[in-house]
Amino acid sequence: MTSNIEEAKAFLETSKRMNLSILDAQEEYKSQTKLVDPRAIDDEINHKLGILDKLRFTYLESMSREELLRKIDDDDLDIGQSEIRQIEQETTEAEKEYQKLETELYLKVNEHEQDTREILELYKTYESEIQVFKDLLDDAEALENELQSMINSCDPDVSLIIQSKLDQENPTGDFESEIEWNKLQTELEQKQLDELSKQKDEIKAQLREVENEKEEIRKRLLNLKTKAALSANSQDQWSVVEKGTQEYAQFAKHMSEILLLLSAEPKDIKVQQLDSETYQLDVYPYKMSKISVVYTRKFNIISIDGIKDTNKIKQFIHSINSFVPNDSIKFMDLVGSFLAEFIGQ
C-alpha cells in the first residue's frame, strides 16, 4: 500500500515538471523567434532564405568587382604600339564597313517610305471602290423599290405608256375584248421587268468586278506589308550597325506607323543627314505645311519647325532631351505622338 502511494506521488511530480517544461519551451520560443504562432515558422524560414540569397548575390557581385579591378590593375595587360596600330587598323576597317552599311540602311529606309506611299495610294483606291460598290447597291435598291411601286399601284405614267403602246399597235383602238387589253398590259409590264432584270444583272457583274479588284488590292497590300516586315526584321544584315543607327531606323518606321494609324495621310516623309551627327526629319502632312525635326544621332532634339505653338515645342524639347539617355525607344514614341497630335488637328 505504501509503495502505491509513493508511485502516485512520483507520477504527480513528474506531470508537474512536464507541464512546467512545456510552458518554458513556449516562452523561450516566443523570445527567440519573435513569432506568435509556431505555424508561422515556414514563412520566417522563407524570409531568412531570401535574405541569404540576397547576401550571396551581394557577395558574388563584390568578388566579381574585385577580380575585375585586379585584372585591370595587372601590369601584363599593358598595350604596346603594335596592338595600338592593330586596333587603329581594325577601327578604320570598321568605320568603312559602317559607312557602307549606313548607306544600305538609308536605301532600305527609302524603300520602306516608298512602300508606305504605295500602301496609301492602294488604300485610297480601295475606299473609292467601296464607295462605287455602295452607290451600285443604292441604285439597285432604288430600282427594286420603283418596280415594286409600279406593280402595287396604278401609276398614271404607266397607264400613259401602255396607252401609247396600244395606240401605236392599233390606231383605231378597236379591241375585240378586255382580254386583249390585259394581255397587252401584261406584256408591257413583262418587258419592264425584263429590262430591270437586265439592269440588275449588269449591276451584279459590276459588283463582281469590284470584288475582284478588292481581292487584288488586298493581295498587293499583303505583299507590301510582307516586304516591309522582311526589310525591318533583317537582323543578320544590320547586326554590326551601331545602336544609334538601328534606333534611327526604328524611329522612321515607328513614325510612319503612327501617321498611318491616325489617318493623317502624309504626302511624304523624308529623312536626310545634315552631317555626321545631325539628321533632319521632314513630314509633309495632308493639307498642311512641312514640319521639320532636327535631332542628333543620340536622339537629342535641336529644333522643331512648322508648328506655331512655340511654348509647347520648348517644353517638349526640354523634357525629351533630359529623358533621352535613359530610354531612346520611349523617345521615339513621344516624338511620334507629339507630331501626330498636331497633324491630327
Short description:
Residues 77-153, 186-227 form a coiled coil. The chain is of the alpha+beta class and 345 residues long.
Question: What is the element layout, followed by pairings?
Answer:
Layout: H1 2-33, H2 41-73, H3 81-152, H4 156-169, H5 178-232, H6 243-261, E1 268-273, E2 278-284, E3 291-296, E4 301-305, H7 310-323, H8 328-343
Antiparallel strand pairs: 1-2, 2-3, 3-4
Helix pairs in contact: 3-5, 3-6, 6-8
InterPro entries: Sos7
GO biological process, one term: attachment of mitotic spindle microtubules to kinetochore
Organism: [Candida] subhashii
Please, could you describe this protein's structure?
This protein is of the alpha+beta class and 345 residues long. Helix content is 74%, strand content 7%. It is built from eight helices and four strands. A four-stranded antiparallel β-sheet has the order 1-2-3-4. β1 (268-273) and β2 form a beta hairpin. The chain is flat.
